[in-house]
Write a structure and sequence with these properties.
about 180 residues; mainly beta; Jelly Rolls; six-stranded antiparallel β-sheet; five-stranded antiparallel β-sheet; 2 helices; 13 strands; about 5% helix
Length: about 180
């Protein structure tokens, strides 16, 4: 497993070693010991899978309190995956990072607790998997508007298909402080 650091400390793009031949391929998507060596000491308690069509954008989602760290990857298709630092007091507050994840490149994106996350589908369909470090809590569920001008995320879509929740999400500046995670150095 290769860890690629991003501009956001603690956010990593991970590339597994893929073993392939004429029959197909094999790779290890998670190994606790390997991930700990890479600086990710995560215990996953929930795994989710979603399937979306081209042009669907999901996000930017987070959970507070009881934040979730997420290890995300694509099993079918291709997505443009985005993470935003929304931790109050963080030196990188409001900054974002993106990666293209696909069934072809086998990349994983590690999103630590305290970050908002979203993706848009670039292929006809995409099957997306999330391994989460905390259980989903409906009362803690929150979102930030995908096209918040203050974030200036360079999405590859201009008119995505959104859920009602995502279309109505507030701008980051509109979120009350007590509804944002806290940066812990």
């Amino acid at each position: 497993m290769k860890r690629n650091d991003t501009r956001l400390p603690g956010v990593y793009v991970l590339e597994p070693r893929v073993f392939g031949d004429a029959r197909g391929f094999f790779y290890e998507s998670f190994n606790a010991a390997t991930y700990a060596e890479l600086g990710i000491d995560a215990q996953f308690v929930q795994t989710n899978v979603s399937r979306s069509a081209r042009g669907v954008l999901r996000g930017l989602h987070y959970q507070w309190p009881n934040p979730q760290g997420k290890l995300v990857s694509v099993l079918e298709g291709e997505v443009y995956d985005v993470v935003v630092d929304i931790r109050r007091g963080s030196p990188t507050f409001g900054r974002w990072e993106a990666a293209v994840l696909s069934a072809e490149n086998h990349r994983h994106f590690w999103i630590p607790e305290g970050f908002a996350h979203g993706f848009c589908v670039l292929s006809e369909f995409a099957t997306f998997t999330y391994q989460c470090t905390a259980l989903y809590e409906p009362r803690a569920d929150a979102a930030i508007r995908w096209n918040d001008a203050a974030l200036a995320i360079d999405w590859p879509v201009s008119d995505p298909q959104l859920s009602d929740k995502d279309a109505r999400a507030p701008l980051l500046a509109e979120v009350p402080e007590d509804r944002l995670p806290i940066f812990v150095p």
